[in-house]
Amino acid sequence: xxxxxxxxxxxxxxxxxxxxxxxxxxxxxxxxxxxxxxxxxxxxxxxxxxxxxxxxxxxxxxxxxxxxxx
Length: 70
Fold this sequence. Notes:
Layout: E1 10-14, E2 17-21, H1 26-41, H2 43-56, H3 59-62
Antiparallel strand pairs: 1-2
C-alpha cells in the first residue's frame, strides 16, 4: 500500500458561518469529504453515493468474464 501526503487548505462557507480544514492524509481528506457530503445531501443520499463509489472497486466488478470464455 502506498503512502500519500496531502497539502491542502479547504475553506467552506455555510449560511451559519465558515469552516476551514487542512487534511494531511487520505483518511483525513475522506472524513472531511464525507462530513461535507452528509451535511449537504443528507445521510441517505451520502450513503447511496458512497455505495456507488465502492461498487466500482468491488472484487466482482474487477473480474470481467465474457459468457462462454473459459
